[in-house]
Design brief:
Strand 1 and strand 2 form a beta hairpin. This protein has two domains: 234 residues, 3-Layer(aba) Sandwich (Rossmann fold), CATH 3.40.50; 215 residues, P-loop containing nucleotide triphosphate hydrolases (Rossmann fold, 3-Layer(aba) Sandwich). It is α/β, with parallel strands linked by helices and 483 residues long. It has 14 helices and 18 strands. It has a six-stranded mixed beta sheet, sandwiched between helices. It has a five-stranded parallel beta sheet with strand order 15-16-17-13-18, sandwiched between helices. The two termini are 31 Å apart. Helix 3 crosses helix 4 and helix 10 runs parallel beside helix 12.
C-alpha cells in the first residue's frame, strides 16, 4: 500500500477561544510530535483535547469563529493550509457517513483533493482492506453497525493518504466488540502506513497497547508528557484526581439504593420496536419500569437499544404490543405515552437522546436549562433555583452564558442530562448518559442519576458503559444477538 510520508505535528504557544465564550479553551500549548509517533492525548472533560485536534485538522474556522494566538504546524506548514496531510475521525459513527454507498463515502475525501479517478478507486479498495471491511462498494452506509461505520470513517481518512491520523474519541459510542474492531483497525493502518497518530480518549486501556507517548492537557497547557509508563507511574493519582481514567484507580460509586423498587410506572407488553415503520428490530419484549429503580439496556450496536429507549419514552410508535402507563404516572393524561402531548411528557417521562445536539434549542446554557421549567409556567424564583442548582452540580456554572454548540462533547452531554432533570420527571430515559466524561464528571453524573433514583424516579439507561450498571446497581436488560 503506497502511503503519504508520516507528518511532524507541532504547537507553538497556541491558544484558542471561541467567539461566544469568555474562557480560553487552550491558552499556552507547546508540543512537538515526531513523524511516526503514536500519541494518546489525555485531559479532563473540557480541557481542550478536541479543540486541539480540530485545530491540527484545520477545521476550527476563521476569525469569525474564534480568536487564536501562536501556531499549529504540520511539517512546518500552518495546519489550516496543510490540505490533505491530516485525517480526522470523530466520535459519532452516524455523523461521518456522508454518502449513501460505502465506496462513494470512502472516495469522498480523495475526490475533494483532486485525486485521479482510477487512483481513487484503487485507494478505496486498499483502505477498506486495511481497516478490515470486506463489504461491497455499493452496500448502504446506513445498514452498517456502529463499529463498521467507524471503520468506514477511518477508511475514508486513510484514502486521502494523510501523514497524521487524528482520532477524537473514536470508540465513545461503541459496544466493547466495536471498540476492539476500531482499535485493531487503527493498528493495522499504522503498521501499513507508518502514519503519525494522535488519539483522544478518556478510557485508556484499549489504546495503551498502540501508543508510545502520552500527553496530558490541563490548566490551558501541557501538564505531563512522556511514555505511558512514566506519565501514569509518576502522575497517576494526580491525573485521576483531575479526571483522567487511570488504570487501577476506579472512580467513586454512589451508595446503594435507599430502598426497594416501588410500583410499576411503565409496562411494555409483548412489545416490538422499529426504527422504520413495519421493520421490527426486536420483538417479544416484556419489561416493567418501576419507581426508585435503575434499568440498564445493553446489547451490541444495531440491536435496537436506542429504539427501545425512545419507544418507552413515548417518542416512537410500537411496531406491535404496547407501552402502558400506570395511573400514578399518567396523572390524568389519556392513553399510552405515545399519545401524550409534549407538555404532558415533560413532568412524566424525560428523555436524553444519544446525540446531544439533537436537543439543543437556545443560545445559552442557562436558557437551555430554563426551557422545560418555562414550558411548565413555573415562577421565576423556582426556575432560577432549579437552574442554578443543576449548573453547580454538573460543573456548568462557568459556562452559563456560553452558546451550547461551543461546548465540548462531554459538556453537551451534561447539559442535556441537566435539561431533562430540570422538569423533575417521574421516569427518565438516558441514551449513553456517560459518554465523553472524564472520571470525575462521570462520578458526579452517576451520583446525580442515583439521587434521582433514590428520590423515587425510574431511571432507564441505554449504555455500553457496564461500570454505570454496577454503580447504579441497575437491573440489566439485554437485547439483540451476540456482541
Amino acid at each position: 500500500m503506497v502511503t503519504g510520508r508520516p507528518a511532524a505535528v507541532e504547537a507553538r504557544g497556541w491558544a484558542w477561544r471561541h467567539a461566544t465564550r469568555l474562557k480560553w479553551a487552550l491558552s499556552a500549548v507547546s508540543l512537538h510530535i515526531e513523524p511516526g509517533e503514536r500519541v494518546l492525548l489525555l485531559g479532563a472533560s473540557g480541557s481542550g483535547k478536541s479543540t486541539l485536534l480540530h485545530g491540527f485538522a484545520g477545521v476550527l474556522g476563521g476569525d469569525d469563529e474564534g480568536e487564536s494566538h501562536g501556531e499549529l504546524l504540520i511539517d512546518g506548514m500552518p495546519a489550516a493550509r496543510a490540505r490533505g496531510r491530516a485525517g480526522l475521525v470523530l466520535q459519532d459513527p452516524d455523523s461521518q457517513a456522508i454518502l449513501a454507498r460505502v465506496g462513494d463515502d470512502v472516495a469522498f475525501g480523495a475526490e475533494n483533493l483532486g485525486v485521479a479517478r482510477d487512483e481513487i478507486w484503487r485507494r478505496v479498495r486498499e483502505a477498506l482492506d486495511a481497516v478490515g471491511l470486506d463489504i461491497p462498494l455499493d452496500a448502504s452506509t446506513t445498514a452498517l453497525s456502529g463499529g463498521q461505520k467507524q471503520r468506514l470513517a477511518l477508511a475514508g481518512a486513510i484514502a486521502m493518504r494523510p501523514g497524521v491520523l487524528l482520532l477524537d474519541e473514536p470508540t465513545a459510542n461503541l459496544d466493547p466488540a466495536g471498540v476492539l474492531e476500531v482499535r485493531d483497525a487503527v493498528g493495522r493502518v499504522l503498521e501499513r502506513t507508518g502514519a503519525t497518530l494522535v488519539v483522544v480518549e478518556h478510557r485508556l486501556n484499549a489504546w495503551l497497547p498502540l501508543v508510545d507517548r502520552v500527553i496530558v492537557l490541563g490548566d490551558g497547557g501541557v501538564i505531563a508528557d512522556g511514555t505511558p509508563e512514566a506519565v501514569l507511574g509518576a502522575h497517576g493519582p494526580e491525573l485521576a484526581a483531575s479526571g483522567v481514567w487511570v488504570p487501577g484507580i476506579p472512580p467513586r460509586h454512589p451508595a446503594p439504593p435507599v430502598g426497594p423498587a416501588g410500583s410499576t410506572l411503565l409496562h411494555a407488553r409483548d412489545l416490538a420496536i422499529a426504527r422504520v415503520r413495519g421493520r421490527a428490530v426486536a420483538s417479544g419484549i416484556d419489561l416493567a419500569v418501576r419507581a426508585g429503580e435503575a434499568i440498564g439496556i445493553t446489547g451490541p450496536n444495531g440491536a435496537g437499544k436506542t429504539t427501545l429507549g425512545l419507544t418507552l419514552a413515548g417518542l416512537l410508535v410500537p411496531a406491535a404490543g404496547r407501552v402502558e402507563a400506570s395511573a400514578e404516572l399518567a396523572r390524568g393524561a389519556k392513553g399510552d405515552p405515545i399519545r401524550w402531548s409534549s407538555r404532558e411528557l415533560l413532568t412524566r417521562i424525560g428523555t436524553v437522546m444519544q446525540d446531544p445536539e439533537h436537543q439543543l434549542l437556545t443560545t445559552t446554557v442557562r436558557a437551555e436549562l430554563e426551557v422545560g421549567p418555562r414550558a411548565l409556567r413555573l415562577g421565576e424564583a423556582e426556575i432560577r433555583g432549579r437552574v442554578d442548582d443543576l449548573l453547580e452540580r454538573l460543573r456548568l456554572s462557568a459556562l452559563a452564558e456560553a452558546n451550547p454548540y461551543t461546548l465540548s462533547g462531554g459538556e453537551k452531554r451534561r447539559l442535556t442530562v441537566a435539561a431533562a432533570l430540570a422538569t423533575r420527571p417521574d421516569v427518565i430515559v438516558l441514551d449513553e448518559p456517560t459518554f465523553g466524561q472524564d472520571a470525575r464528571t462521570w462520578a458526579e453524573l452517576v451520583a446525580i442519576i442515583a439521587s434521582v433514583r433514590d428520590a423515587g424516579a425510574a431511571v432507564v439507561a441505554v449504555t455500553h458503559d457496564l461500570d454505570v450498571l454496577e454503580a447504579l446497581r441497575a437491573r440489566e436488560v439485554r437485547i439483540g444477538g451476540h456482541a
